[in-house]
């Protein structure tokens, strides 16, 4: 058993109050069962990767709790195939559910299921399941659990999970599920505009058991991520795929400074505002890309690659240029399609992936092809400066120290882009 720890990562909502999210990721788990990692894969992508991709399977050193490395360490829920998400709506005597519990459920579904289907090109069949369709009243008032921003797993969340298990009784067999979503009545705790309480305990080796299996991966959703712009019905669900992203092993990309490192290019960076997708790196990490859709640029000299839009199924999606065993540059084509609702300057997104940088500390850095431009979007809650980050035909990214140059050469009529990667 490893000691538990936690991180508190404040994030900003554009022109609104600072909000905070807490992500707990504790070590790894060798436990088996449901609500726990897939025994066969350890929650990570299972396929044996081709030898040509090995140099691109970067990994962090021991001590990085939630790493961008591939493969994902064991302990997380599996991220491909059919995933059964036990989804419970809970309320309290001092925060009674208002309206029907299924109305709360409808704030997140079917949107979340659809988001995963689109982002994964159909590889993640996410099934939210509600064996109990009414509010589950907790035995103690909300305030007695001591749940606030930064609350650790013990004692509040342990008590809450135990109470949830007790109250569900024989109606729920926890062995049938891969992960747990707890949709808390939105009147419990502060407004999400003041404090984001939503939190995930992933790969949690200290989780209590239910029906003989540990509740290793659980997301708790509080409040409503409603910025008052009138878009809540369209975008309010997005906190759930973000929190579930942690359950599949993805780290937070925002930092103390907010979304300035990765912008709106990944839901693990910004989950307020208009729809966005995941980075191609994350799709590979989650097992949503075949090896044939990923190229590992290791050779000296110049190589040409054709990339198809990330939001569209099929074709090459990701070129990775490794720089050592822990980091590298990723290239992908981002356009306004699929889950990417607001791409104002399509092109080749270039970013650094560093598997040695932990969640919340900036494991991904997007390079801005138009620095200090102010960006091209006016969409609310979208980090503006990086919105025009993609490289267009004729533009080059250079790392002179390592002798690497990446040039976007052309966009063809079908919408594919060609890039040249040169390594000295
Ligand atoms: Zn997070």
TrEMBL record:
The domain of life is Bacteria
| InterPro entries in the cross-refs | Peptidase_M6-like_domain
GO MF terms listed in the record are: metallopeptidase activity
Q: Name the UniProt key words of this record, in alphabetical order.
A: Hydrolase, Metalloprotease, Protease
Name a single GO biological process: proteolysis
Keyword Membrane on this protein? no
* Name recorded for this polypeptide: M6 family metalloprotease domain-containing protein
Q: Which organism is it from?
A: Streptomyces colonosanans
């Amino acid at each position: 058993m490893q000691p538990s720890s936690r991180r508190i990562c404040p994030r900003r909502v554009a022109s609104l109050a600072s909000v905070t999210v807490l992500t707990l990721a504790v070590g790894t788990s060798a436990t088996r069962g449901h609500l726990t990692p897939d025994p066969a894969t350890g929650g990570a992508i299972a396929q044996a990767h081709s030898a040509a991709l090995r140099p691109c399977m970067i990994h962090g050193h021991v001590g990085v709790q939630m790493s961008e490395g591939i493969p994902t360490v064991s302990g997380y829920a599996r991220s491909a195939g059919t995933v059964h998400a036990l989804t419970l709506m809970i309320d309290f005597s001092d925060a009674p559910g208002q309206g029907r519990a299924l109305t709360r459920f409808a704030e997140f579904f079917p949107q979340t299921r659809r988001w995963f289907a689109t982002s994964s090109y159909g590889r993640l069949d996410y099934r939210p399941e509600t064996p109990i369709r009414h509010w589950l009243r907790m035995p103690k008032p909300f305030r007695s659990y001591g749940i606030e921003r930064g609350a650790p797993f013990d004692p509040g969340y342990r008590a809450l999970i135990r109470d949830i298990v007790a109250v569900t009784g024989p109606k729920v067999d926890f062995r049938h599920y891969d992960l747990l979503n707890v949709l808390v009545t939105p009147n419990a705790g502060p407004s999400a505009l003041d404090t984001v309480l939503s939190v995930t305990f992933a790969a949690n080796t200290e989780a209590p058991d239910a029906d003989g299996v540990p509740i290793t991966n659980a997301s708790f959703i509080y409040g409503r991520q409603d910025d008052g712009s009138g878009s809540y019905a369209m975008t309010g669900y997005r906190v759930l795929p973000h929190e579930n992203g942690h359950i599949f092993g993805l780290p937070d990309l925002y930092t103390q400074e907010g979304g300035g490192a990765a912008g709106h290019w990944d839901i693990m960076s910004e989950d307020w505002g208009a729809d966005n997708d995941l980075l191609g790196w994350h799709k590979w990490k989650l097992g949503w890309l075949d090896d044939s859709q990923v190229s590992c640029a290791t050779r000296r000299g110049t190589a040409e690659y054709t990339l198809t839009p990330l939001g569209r199924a099929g074709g090459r999606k990701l070129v990775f240029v490794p720089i050592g065993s822990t980091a590298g540059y990723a290239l992908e084509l981002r356009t306004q399609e699929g889950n990417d609702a607001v791409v104002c300057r399509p092109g080749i997104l270039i970013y650094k992936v560093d598997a040695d940088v932990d969640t919340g500390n900036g494991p991904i850095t997007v390079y801005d092809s138009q620095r200090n431009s102010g960006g091209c979007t006016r969409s609310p809650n979208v980090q503006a400066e990086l919105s025009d980050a993609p490289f267009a035909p004729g533009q080059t990214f250079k790392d002179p120290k390592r002798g690497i140059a990446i040039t976007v050469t052309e966009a063809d009529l079908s919408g594919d882009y060609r890039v040249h990667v040169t390594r000295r």
